[in-house]
Design a protein that fits this description.
homodimer, about 180 residues, alpha+beta, Pnp Oxidase, Chain A, ten-stranded antiparallel beta sheet, 10 strands
Chain lengths: ~180, ~180
């Protein structure tokens, strides 16, 4: 745990946690909850895999199927919140992000780096969420046309760390990530 | 795991998982992600503790501070989605809910059942999210006026179970929870 009074160290700890989630399949930050607003205004949340976390650009990344409900939601309202719970650090990280959806030629390089056995996660037919008659009436051909990248520039970060005494801070791109403490 | 082709058994498994989360502090379903839409239309998501799950009434319950941002969000848009990941069953449960906020005399009975050392989670001063000068510049007097109950009648359930072959189904109060399979 970082120095209790050091805002910068608190933010450092969060980014280390996120970077760790990209490489360690067992890390809490590997699987953020990804919340969006549906086209009719309902909140939606599902688990995604954290594919990149870059502090220098304050950007995180997830991959998905362009036919998924979350992409439909993002086309109507391009904002999301990602939330991670890191059980070892007892740290909740929330990131408010705007989302850019990349597809086609813009994702060819990333697609080439995805192992062939992992490609089946993308391009399910019929598209994700479509009604089917029996549980396995679908195919996963694993085509690049079924692959989209969600580039997520982070606008705000809210950290809550549990402990003998909880502490919470918020950070924003608008104040150059200086942050401030707030009541938990 | 329930019979792969049995929709009713799949829903049974999800409710058992939720009921287990209420009583077992280590269960995945103990800590749902709780997504709302903020007053300005941004998605928000944070962890809550699952306090009740009743299949007969299709209702789940969480407790919070009435001064929290989630209550402010719910006063503008009384809809939420709860999402649970159960690592043993490899099961993701999403519940779209409408939310009724109970306070005051309506929660006196529940408040009386909360152990005194757990009451400090409610009624933080200044209210949760308020800027403070140093990380521990807050108090947790644990007063009933800082306690609200979120009663969440479930409208829809979306289940995704990972495995050699993934399976997904949706259930809705509108079709009396009969459900249908859908592409994962």
């Amino acid at each position: 745990m970082s120095d209790h009074n050091d805002l910068a160290a608190f933010l450092d700890e969060a980014w280390l946690c996120l970077e760790h989630g990209v490489t360690d399949k067992d890390a809490g930050a590997r699987h953020p909850a990804f919340a969006t607003v549906s086209p009719v205004g309902w909140p939606e949340v599902r688990t995604v895999v954290l594919r990149a976390a870059d502090r220098a650009t304050a950007q995180v990344e997830a991959h998905t199927d362009p036919a998924s409900a979350k992409v439909q939601a993002l086309r109507c309202s391009p904002f999301a919140e990602l939330m991670v719970w890191e059980p070892i650090a007892l740290l909740q990280i929330r990131m408010a992000v705007s989302v850019e959806i990349l597809m086609g030629a813009a994702v060819t390089e990333r697609w080439a780096r995805i192992p062939s056995d992992a490609r089946s996660a993308y391009g399910t037919q019929p598209p994700p969420g479509s009604p089917i008659d029996a549980p396995f009436d679908y195919e996963k051909p694993g085509q690049q046309s079924g692959f989209a990248v969600l580039i997520c520039p982070v606008q705000r970060i809210d950290l809550v760390q549990l402990g003998d005494r909880h502490r919470r801070a918020t950070f924003s791109i608008e104040d150059a990530w200086q942050g401030n403490w707030c009541a938990p």
